[in-house]
Amino acid sequence: MHTQEPRGRRIRFARPRRLASQVLAVQLALTAGVTLLAAALFLAPLSNNLDDQAMRRALAIAQTTAAEPGMADRLLSSKPTPDNPVQREADRIRRATGAEYVVIMDERGVRWSHTEAHRIGSHVSTDPEPALSGAEWMGIDHGTLGQTARGKVPLRDQNGRVIGAVSVGIAYESVRDRLVGAVPGILAYAGGALAVGAIVAYALSRRLQRRTHDLAFSDISALLDEREAMLHGIREGVIALDKNARIRLVNDEARRLLGLTDTDAAAVTGKPLDEALPPGRTTDILAGRVTGDDLLAVSNSRVLVLNRMPTDDGGAVATLRDRTELERLGRELDSTRGLIDALRAQDHEHANRMHTLLGLLELGLTDEAVDYIAEAVGGHRATAEQVTGHIHDPLLAALLVGKATVAAERGVELHLAGSLPDEVVDPTGLVTIVGNLIDNALDAAVGSHDPEIEVEVDADEGGRAVHLRIADSGPGVPYDQRDKIFTEGYSTKRLPPHGAKRGIGLPLVRRLAERQGGEVTVDDRPGGGAEFTVYLPEALREATPAPAPQP
Q1: d(Cα 223, Cα 463) in Å, to the nearest integer?
Q2: What are the residues facing 298 on neighbouring strands?
Q3: Which among 298, 322, 346 is the end of a domain?
Q4: Which of 2, 72, 293, 377 has the smallest C-beta neighbourhood within 10 Å, fewest atoms?
Q5: Is residue 285 part of a domain?
Q6: 530 close to 472: Cβ distance less than 8 angstroms
Q7: How far is 273 from 244, CA to CA, in rounded Å?
Q8: Among candidates 137, 169, 167, 155, which has minimal Cα distance to 71?
């Protein structure tokens, strides 16, 4: 069974869907349009130019004929007959110049010459008044011989009096023939230009097809939307740079990790990287001045892992991962392992003390047993009282008590000096600074000749500044490494058992100090070892004035 196609159904040409095909079609249409327009713009002035040339040629022939010696005398001395001398001379000039006609008339407008002999003696078909009044005229006009390019001049006698006029015509068909003859050449040039444009357009479309993977506009738009959703939805910071190191894209996670607000992120887009971000290791890694995989950096007290991958266009895409919590857990694991070792040693020491106490009791030396227990307990109590007597901030006091216990178990003496009121602006940051420096000091002091650590905390009286000094009896820091130890990822220690990267503690200390407008320096300790000094100008809250007593 055949179905009949409905009548009147219009055939629709499907538009190309692929980007390269659409661009090719547009370029071909533009090339063809420009070529045709250029040809038309060239032909229009050419036609006018050919008309002007024909009219000027007719006028020149008329002027030459009017200036012919004896022409005025022949007109005055003859009659308008087919064989008069004016007709013979006009016919000679017409054949010599190739004009369509050469008409000589008297002052009444009666022809003395004409291409058709039977028209001699009759009045001219066009207005002779301009020439008979003494003026020259040229133009395109229609007469008995059809449309011609004409030139008319007055004919004067020896005294300059107008006695007639000369009218010369150039066949307009010859002008049109010249124009038509020029069209094939013009079209050949236009066709060549169109062919070159088509080849260039095809080559460009093929290149565009390769670069766009033959996708349609809708596909590209969908990919862009998906890319935006993906980049701003993933929990990993992404920064895209062009070949001139200008920022092209900063996703939401990168803004958070770098501490940029939405306004800042919009402002830095398009700016050079060194202008958009403050100087430091993070900027150096993003710019490619520091290379490597999984590079560590500290930004706004956050530990970041950065990777930079170059792109084919000379730019780069960098990823940022927040490792602050992982690093904190790693450091806690280090502390836990140290505490486990300390507890193991303490358990061993506790067993020895219990055995000693048991022996004293079995020997009946009760007084000695009581003194022995008091001495053991009093040592720990004295340490806690000494710390809380100097340090009134509970977080820092608790840290120092714990560190003193770990130091004692590791065979290191911890000496505490100075005092600190309970008015710290950022207790967590201060605990991080002191904890990192004491951990480094403990690692350095263990195994030295006389292991000890000096911790000194001083606050300006009536001010807001805090001075920290933490010294150890270790090998010290060589002079050429004193700047490197504050660089993320650099460490003189071997990797811990759990494999976490070193080189974060001291950079984090410096970043926290600088965030409060302070600084961290390292020097040699008198007697050997390293001495770290931290200055925090705004670590304490402003003192509130005491209320005035009521009368």
Answers
A1: 59
A2: 303
A3: 322
A4: 2
A5: yes
A6: yes
A7: 9
A8: 155
State the pLDDT at residue 313.
82
Q: What is the DSSP letter of 500?
A: -
Could you tell me the CA-to-CA distances from 201 to 20, 192, 210 in Å, in that order? 10, 14, 14
Give the domain extent around 148. Answer: 21-178
The string of pLDDT tens digits covering residues 103-119 is 999 988 899 898 888 88
Edge-to-edge strand list for the sheet holding 162-171: 101-106, 162-171, 146-156, 137-143
How far is the CA of 343 from the CAs of 146, 189, 400, in angstroms?
A: 126, 97, 17
Q: pLDDT value at position 470?
A: 92
Residue 138: strand, helix, or coil:
strand
Sign of CA dihedral 468, 442, 404, 375: negative
Regarding whether 337 and 317 lie in a shared domain, the answer is: no
199 falls within a domain = no
Average pLDDT, the chain: 76
CATH code, domain with 523: 3.30.565.10
Q: What are phi and psi of 154, to 5 degrees?
A: -75, 150
Closest CA to 445 of 329, 337, 509, 525: 525
Counting DSSP H helices and E strands in the chain, the numbers are: 15, 14
User: Are 269 and 248 spatial neighbours (Cβ–Cβ below 8 Å)?
Assistant: yes
Residue-level pLDDT at 11: 43
CA 212 centroid distance within chain = 20
Q: Pick out the chain residues at pLDDT < 50.
A: 1-16, 498-500, 546, 548, 551
Q: What is the DSSP string of 287-353?
A: HTSS--SSEEEEETTEEEEEEEEE-TTS-EEEEEEE-HHHHHHHHHHHHHHHHHHHHHHHHHHHHHH
